[in-house]
Amino acid sequence: MSAVSRSLQLISHKASFISQLARKNRDVPKVNLPYRELSSMGRRLNHLYQKVPPEVIWNTIDRDLDGLEKQVRQSLGNRISDTLPKRIIKYPKIQLFKQGEDFDLTSSVLALEITPFVDALTELQHIIDYVQNEPPSIVQIQYIGQNSPVGLALDGVAEAIRLFIDVVVPWRRLHAEEMAKLERQQKLTQIEVEKAEVLEKRANAVKQREEARKITMEIQEKRIDITLKVLQALPHNFSESEKVALTNQLLQPIKVLTDSQVLVTLPKNPRE
Question: Where are the alpha helices (DSSP H) in the chain?
Answer without folding.
Answer: 3-24, 35-46, 54-76, 107-109, 115-131, 158-163, 169-198, 202-233, 240-259
